[in-house]
Amino acid sequence: MSADVCVVVPTVRERDCLRSYVENAREHGFDVERLFFVLVTEDFCDTDAMAATLAEEDVTGRVFDESARQAWFDAHGIAEYADLVPAASHAQTSFGLLYLWAHEFDYGVFLDDDTRPHPHFDFFGRHLRNLEYDGEVARVSSDTGWVNVLYQHADEHGLYPRGFPYGAMGETSDVDATSVDDVVVSQGLWTGVPDLDAVRILQDGDLRGRGRTRLASEDYDGSFVVGRGNYLTVCSMNLAFRREVVPAFYQLPMDDNPWGIGRFDDIWSGVFLKRACDVLGSQVLSGYPLCVHEKAPRSTFEDLAAEAPALAINERLWTLVADVGDSVTSYADVYRAMAAALASGDFDDVENGAFLTYLGEHMGLWLSCLEALEDGVDEGDRGGVPSAVVDESAEPVASDD
Fold it and tell me: For 28-57, how does the pLDDT look when each residue is reduced to its tens digit (9 = 90+)?
């Protein structure tokens, strides 16, 4: 089988995470020939060693540092859009989306290099089964319009994930059952280090960006969707999605911008995508498969400096797009409507509101870039290391179902 899953890993640290996920796939009998890895890194990193890791693991993929990304933009005639991928930012995962789009992969997976697959889960298999799921599932709604993805045991740990608006806290959740038949995003959650913002990490008494509270598999009771008109935090460390959502899933331009705003790329892209899903009647499924989030220590204050300029925007952004795009019929058209609303809006009453206009402009350019890619890509030019060979001797372990 040829690769139909593009696995995007932003990394500047180490490569053992890749080995862990490939090992998990083989242990659970998942066909690794379906996986194509795109490692997004920097010029100062050892790209030869990264490519060697792919070869050693006998999987296909390519490594793109900044120079290689620029060469790819040039080769595909879209150099004018290279600035859509910010320098030295986690939001460089957008490059992976462009690669997926250009080479027509059916599915994408985002992984962070400080995670590992939870051993009880068939990681890739469960994500893809989620994206094919047709049946009943728990549905969660909230009286504040936001659902805490950690709601199942929030009374015990009291956590809200990174990006959850402060004004939406203290919510009352309502859980019922619904049927789904168009899951386009599978968001796996995490054990180990919670995904918290800098303010909450400081409140948890930690200066190294990790917090002291830890989560376990017992903190989760299965998967769920969030009701129409409600929002949730979307974290890209453990996420799978269908190709069709890429036009509405640009990972927004963080860090490398005049306001110094960072760390909201996946959060805000999730807000826009959830709005698009609500318009089109599709679903975001959250919960399983779990990963183990180890999180490399770093300065909590540096994270706070990146988040602080955007905190006021985060309280308002979802309200600005909540009624946008009702009459359209594609992800690109919903996204285009949201981009236009932001690019032409008056946000003088929002601290650093000019960044919203900046976002809208970049969102519009994202759609133009995808259209340009459709016009002239050699679909066979994936490149990479030698093709994977399935380990037929690997015995599947117990299913996570």
Answer: 999 999 999 999 999 999 999 999 999 999
DSSP 8-state code for residue 126: H
* Per-residue pLDDT tens digits for 247-262: 999 999 999 999 999 9
User: 176-211 in b/e burial notation, b at 16+ Cβ within 10 A?
Assistant: eeeebeebbbbbbbbbbbbbbbbbbbbebebeebbb
- How would you class 130 by CB atoms within 10 Å of its CB: exposed for 0-12, middle for 13-18, buried for 19 or more? buried
- Within-domain flag for 387: no
The whole-angstrom separation of Cα 203 and Cα 318 is: 25
- The answer to whether the CB of 28 falls within 8 A of the CB of 118 is no
Summarize pLDDT for 96-128 with one digit per residue, the tens. 999 999 999 999 999 999 999 999 999 999 999
Q: Is residue 395 part of a domain?
A: no
Task: Calculate ∠ Cα 195-12-285, nearest 5°.
Answer: 35
Output the six-digit token pair for 272. 């826009």
Q: Could you list the residue range(s) of the whole structural domain that residue 318 is in?
A: 5-374
Q: How far is Cα 367 from Cα 214, in angstroms, rounded to an integer?
A: 39
Degrees to nearest 5, angle at CA 186 with 183 and 188: 155
Residue from 272, 236, 260 nearest 367 by CA: 272
pTM above 0.90, yes or no: yes
Residue 135 lies in a domain: yes
Tokens of 234: 């979307």
Task: Say if CB 197 and CB 178 are below 8 A apart.
Answer: no
Distance CA 330, CA 367 (A): 12
Is 398 among the domain residues? no
How many distinct structural domains can be found in the chain? 1
